[in-house]
Design a protein that fits this description.
- The chain starts with a helix and ends with a strand.
- It has one domain.
- Helix content is 30%, strand content 44%.
- The protein is built from four helices and nine strands.
- The strands form three sheets. Strands 1-3-2 form a three-stranded antiparallel sheet, with helices on one face. Strands 4-6-5 form a three-stranded antiparallel sheet, with helices on both faces. A three-stranded antiparallel sheet has the order 7-9-8, with helices on both faces.
- With 189 residues, it is of the alpha+beta class.
Length: 189
């Protein structure tokens, strides 16, 4: 190949490359109601958007809100979402296990604070249209003292659990607690 033809071809590829680059499409959801967030995430999931991140807190215009970031899936897969929220860690663990048994996996957690002062620890679970063959067993590690958190996580790890997510939340029985979601692949019967 002639050197000038090679230089021209390289130049054309360099200029055209950004046009072929895949752009990302994001969706931002924000609300202070768990039911509204569940509905909006499910609608976005059916349009091919996948969960990226979640954070609860005060926003400039919305007060105490939870903000979820979602990104369009390049493979055009669709997703189902459930938002599990509870004031008791035992209730949240039970709901996560039921979702896990149905093929959902935990992808995030945060705290929802209502306008009336209540707070719920929330877990977001996702199931893709392609379906996952792996089922998970979940264990919540919740403690009011960070000094005991490491020991409790080591105990969970010794049982084969890995940490998935962490938040600081206010629960009905424990008050302010550090809540860590752990999981392990469920053993086949």
């Amino acid at each position: 190949m002639n050197r000038s033809v090679f230089v021209v071809a390289a130049f054309v590829i360099a200029i055209a490359a950004p046009a072929f680059a895949q752009t990302r499409t994001y969706k931002v959801l924000a609300t202070n109601k768990t039911s509204t967030m569940q509905k909006e995430m499910q609608e976005a999931g059916q349009l091919g958007f996948r969960f990226v991140a979640v954070m609860g807190g005060a926003t400039a215009g919305g007060g105490k809100e939870v903000v979820v970031l979602m990104e369009k899936d390049p493979a055009n897969q669709t997703f189902d979402y459930r938002l599990l929220a509870a004031t008791r860690t035992s209730t949240l663990q039970k709901e996560m296990q039921e979702a896990g048994d149905s093929g959902f996996g935990v992808v995030g957690q945060t705290v929802f604070e209502s306008m009336f002062g209540g707070a719920e620890t929330a877990a977001i679970v996702e199931r893709g249209s392609a379906g996952s063959k792996v089922r998970y067993e979940y264990r919540l590690v919740a403690t009011a003292r960070t000094s005991t958190l490491e020991r409790e996580l080591q105990e969970a790890a010794a049982d084969g659990f890995i940490a998935v997510d962490l938040t600081v939340g206010k629960t009905a029985l424990g008050g302010n607690e550090v809540v860590v979601i752990t999981r392990r692949a469920k053993q086949s019967p």
